[in-house]
Amino acid sequence: MQAYAAKLIDLIELKAEKIAKQWAVDVRKHNRTPSYSSLPLDRVIERGVDFYRLFRQMSLADVPYEAAKTFSWKYAKECYQEKIPLQEAVYALILLRRNLWLYAEFQGVFTSALEQQQAVESLNRTILMYDYVSYQVIEKYQEMIQNDVDKNIGSIKLVMNNPISSIKNIYKSGLMGILILVACILSYYYHAILGTGVIFTHLFYIPIILAAVWWGKKGIFVAIFLAGLILASHVLFLKAVPFVDDIIRALMFIVIGGVVGWLMDGIKKIEDMYKATI
Amino acid sequence: MLASLKLLDLMANSSEAMAKQWAKEVVKNPKTPYYHNSDQDKIIPQAAEFYQKLSRVYTDKDPFTAIKGFMGKFAEARFKEKVPLHEALYSIILMRRHIWLYAEFQAIFISIIEQHQALDSQLRTILMFDYITYAFTEKYWELMNLEFARKSKK
Q: Across the interface, which of A85, A120, A124 has its CB nearest the CB of B141?
């Protein structure tokens, strides 16, 4: 530690609580830090004392930047939890630094010509500390926002990373082609050969939902095709069987395909937003 | 205030030289990795313009309004370039340091009276940068929230 800074550090160590009280009064009524006005005074003072005690810790540390993290991270976490906007959290740090300097001036710590030079050096030291702390606080704030985003859309990550969603497009088209072909064969077999409209159409929901998951709203074309398929097949092969059941089935295909596609488009937007934030 | 004029002159007349020194540091500082692959020809005018604008408001009675104006635009530009906020702010801290380093290098504060002026100039510079930090963070934070809200509405 340089000798010129010792005077200031001693003063801070001795008067940390007093300076913190002055800062607390200032920050709670300052027009650039309105969020502080509703915080309990004791909590604000405690935060100030933590900051002022950091001076000694930083002056003793081999790597002052690392020593600053103990305060910065705690400060950022508390401010973030209290929903203090970042610019206010940073301005409160500025006020912490200013109050320290005001107190030193008020106490007449640096009066002689030599002391004026010491003052410049001490001031540099307080600014360096503030530079480190403000950098670390902002970095931490951004990290916490990122964590919140991760937590809030964690389920989206599951959708993004699931094996069904991540199949390559060429395989998706190939698989969809096969499923539609199977649907055509089943329709022919049940309607033309067996002459019945039993539950085989439930299997059509597999390609309908897969198409919606893969292609969103555009996947509805698969539902429309399959709806058309059972209606056409019915007209061709099941003239004696009432038409109403298959009309309802066809409508349900389109409704389910549309709803799932719409939901998947919403998830895709959140996914894009997530990717943009990382 | 008068004592600060020396630094003000230096800032107004040597903005390009200061900006060049700043650029050399910001492209290799470990706290500003975004800038490491930046083209110096692109970033030097940014810093030079910053110094010019700062020198124009340096002696204003109420510099905050003017600072808010030009730092709002500065924040918008850095936001569009996707410079992380903490790195952008650190690049501004480096700009401040380079004013002082340049002044020291030019040895404009030597005598005892000048030492006193140095302290006065430094306090004025710090006040300016306090406003700059606040205005920049406020605008950048606002843009981040707007972007988040805009994407959520889509």
A: A85
The full set of domains in chain B, from first to last, is 2-153 (1.10.490.10)
Instruction: Name chain B contacts of A85, Cβ cutoff 8 Å.
Output: 138, 141
Q: Are B134 and A123 in contact (CB < 8 Å)?
A: no
Q: Could you say which of A151, A167, A193 is where a domain stops?
A: A151
> Would you call A120 and B133 a contact, using CB atoms and an 8 Å cutoff?
no
Choose the final residue of a domain: A130, A151, A172: A151
- Cα–Cα distance, B89 to B87 (Å, whole number): 5
If one counts the domains in chain A, the total is 2
Contact of A266 with A229, CB cutoff 8 Å = no
Which residue of B lies nearest to A272 if distances are taken between CA atoms?
B151
Could you tell me which residues come within 8 angstroms of residue B37 by beta carbon, excluding any fewer than 6 positions away?
none
pLDDT in tens, chain B (154 residues): 555 567 777 788 888 999 999 999 999 999 999 999 898 889 999 999 999 999 888 878 888 999 999 999 999 999 999 999 999 999 999 999 998 888 776 666 666 666 666 677 778 888 899 999 999 999 998 998 887 766 655 5
Tell me the ipTM for this assembly. 0.83
- Is there a single domain that holds both residue A75 and residue A170? no
B122 to chain A, minimum CA–CA distance in Å?
8
Q: How far is A87 from chain B (nearest CA, A)?
A: 5
- Residues A9/A11/A14/A20 CA torsion (nearest 10 deg): -90
Domain residues for the domain of A212 are 158-277
Are A203 and A234 members of one domain?
Answer: yes
SS3 for B58?
A: coil
Q: Do B128 and B92 form a contact (C-beta atoms < 8 A)?
A: no
For residue B136, give the H/E element and its range: helix B112-153
Same domain? A30 vs A146: yes
Contact B86 A32 (CB under 8 A): no
Shared domain for A169 and A225, answered yes or no, is yes
Residues 9-48 of B with CB under 8 A from A: 31
Residue in A32, A127, A135 closest to B134 by CB: A32
